[in-house]
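pasting for the record
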Amino acid sequence: MSQKGYDLLGLAQRAGKVQSGDAAAEAVIKKGKVKLVLLAVDASDRTKEHFTNLCRFKKIRWIESGEKERLGNALGKSPRSIVVVTDEGFARRLIQLFGGVEEDF
């Protein structure tokens, strides 16, 4: 992902349109408020499988891109395996900057 993508992710965080971390992300996904899920490429296989299955079930777009360290840094936090975006505008632009989604619904 380009630096612009990480910068936009930070802006979305400051705007309150992002949740991160396994528990927080799962709670927001289950409420149906998520527009895009970002999975770190170096997340554990179990985490990737769990969240991709959840995304398929809830019909949520996801991208596997970026390392945990860079995702966390973009948010001003510790390394993050998963980041969820709750705003459609931010989600659409991040999809462009990240180069597309794994599955589109």
